[in-house]
Design brief:
The chain is built from no helices and eight strands. It is mainly beta.
């Protein structure tokens, strides 16, 4: 999909300006209760990672994120997916009983189980799911 930004390189380094401080995807292991909190926050989309004989496939549940707000960075051994889901504006005068839909920025850095060919990365976004296909490098 042409609207999704994919950048390839040899190493993925942590950008010191980002609010995320850890690069091994452990920064989100602590949960919090977002009820009645409309401030911008980090969130963690659910993901599946699986392999076929030729590919590593990653699916991310990112409903509500516009394709142009997704950013994918790929190295031979790691993948970073980041983006932002716009926050729904609170309705004036409404009494909220439950607020579970997370919004704001997210970033996931995934170490890949095999080396991939960074020249053969494809991504598509359908029905709220981002699917990334990474071709394994031949041994």
């Amino acid at each position: 999909m042409s609207d999704i930004k994919i950048r390839c390189g040899h190493l993925l380094e942590q950008n010191p300006r980002r609010r995320v401080s850890d690069t091994d995807d452990t920064m989100f292991h602590h949960s919090f209760n977002p009820i009645f909190n409309f401030s911008e926050r980090l969130w963690r989309p659910h993901m599946d990672i699986f392999e076929t004989p030729d590919e590593i496939i990653i699916r991310a549940e990112v409903a509500g994120v516009a394709p142009q707000d997704l950013d994918i960075e790929v190295s031979e051994n790691a993948l970073r997916i980041s983006g932002k889901r716009a926050e729904a504006s609170p309705i004036p005068g409404a009494t909220y009983r439950l607020v579970e839909i997370q919004s704001g920025s997210f970033e996931r850095l995934l170490k890949l189980p095999r080396t991939v060919d960074t020249t053969k990365v494809t991504a598509n976004y359908t029905n709220g799911f981002l699917k990334i296909n990474l071709v394994k490098q031949s041994c």
